[in-house]
Amino acid sequence: MSPYIIAILIALAIHYFLAIATIYILMKDKGIVKAIIPWNILVLLLPIIGPLIYLIYRQQSKKH
């Protein structure tokens, strides 16, 4: 198996668990409302970066 394929599979596996955890936190923070739809799309469609963006946003919003 090509190393590129292995790297892609590992990245997708990491993204899967990171996305599920982030969406769980998002729903716990905001509940089920239409306002979380854009966050859900961002988290699911941008591998690894999408969940990280929300988690950073969450940390910054809690500081204020």
Kindly describe this structure.
- Helix content is 81%, strand content 0%.
- Helix 1 packs antiparallel against helix 2 (37-45) and helix 1 (3-30) runs parallel beside helix 3 (49-63).
- The chain is mostly helical.
- It has helices spanning 3-30, 37-45, 49-63.
- 11% of the residues are buried.
Task: Quickly describe the structure.
With 64 residues, the chain is mostly helical. It has helices at 3-30, 37-45, 49-63.
Distance linking N and C termini? 48 Å
Overall shape: it is elongated
Strand content: under 5%
> What average pLDDT do the residues reach?
85
Number of strands: 0
Structural class: mainly alpha
Question: How many individual helices?
Answer: 3
Tell me about the biggest sheet?
none
Estimated helix fraction: over 70%
SSE order: HHH
Give start-end ranges of low-pLDDT stretches: none
Radius of gyration: 14 Å
Keywords:
single chain, 64 residues, mainly alpha, 3 helices, 0% strand, elongated
Topology, element by element:
Blueprint: H1 3-30, H2 37-45, H3 49-63
